[in-house]
Specification:
globular; single chain; 363 residues
Length: 363
Amino acid sequence: MSTFALDFEKPLLELEAKLVELKRHAAIGAGDGDGASLDGEIRRLERRCAKLTQEIFAELSRWQMVQLSRHPNRPYMLDYVQRLFTDWLELHGDRAFADDQALVGGLARFDGEPVMILGQQKGRSTKENLLRSFGMPRPEGYRKALRLMKLAERFDRPVIAFIDTPGAYPGIDAEERGQAEAIAACLEEMAALRVPVLSIVIGEGGSGGALAIGVCNRLLMLQYSWYSVISPESCAAILYRDSKKGEKAAEALKLTSRDAFENGIVDELIEEAPGGAHRDWEATAPRCASTCASSARCRPSRWCRTATTSSARSDRSRIRKPRSRKASRRGAGRRIEASGTRTCSWPARTAGPSLPWRGTAPA
């Protein structure tokens, strides 16, 4: 993992480097006879680190939060899959053109419950970023996502989507293959899905590329993520004719998780580890898991199931197995509406007690 650091993080990293060096000296026995003084200095530096972390990250600007969401050491979709889910099986391809590596999906279990997982995936190295288009899906990626969501609906599996993209891929080849149509189809179909959908913004949530898997029953955001109709740089290029004015555009867009929560766009926020998810993956992942579980009323097993009556099932069976070819032609254009419907058990948006800062949102 790289040692990349943002400008406002550098004072904290320098102090932590001194603390690590002091602990190393204490471990190898340097300065025998001064063990008590070394321990006292270590405790003093630890308190300074904790205080400085709180001071730096308590008053971040919107632009600084955007920078944090793009941190190269931040956990990506597959990192959360590895820590939150079991029996992960990736599914590939849109069955029409290709397999887009920028959008990953597959089957898994969350706390024992079978679910369908979707999400944009960025790369760690230059080679992997080129393979995954820096987390910007092409039309075949969104068609793959749509195929998997329809598969989840057929087998009655809830869908969990991880959003982390600056936007859909803007290349000519993507436009030629129908980028806008692919996103629009996802929006239309997700609005009519008959299984619960939970979307989580874990980093960047830019434009229609994010919204294409963001039509959901419950929308969650990590503390240092953003969600907007356009990225700050693109907004600055349009409004101010200068993409370098992204900081000014970020303030105008009000795109942070706190802004989205206060405006009623997001149902719940997920507190990250002190200093951001990139500083402690193992502390952030359990918080994400517990919030996901609480969003389904404490256990995902309460996610809705089919409530179809026996008469509706018999109607479906007659359509699927017509008695004659003529009956098959008549039934091909007929849509059977089940008398029993699926009802979602997602709770209403409330500022519950699960996190101490809920209702006011983290700084």
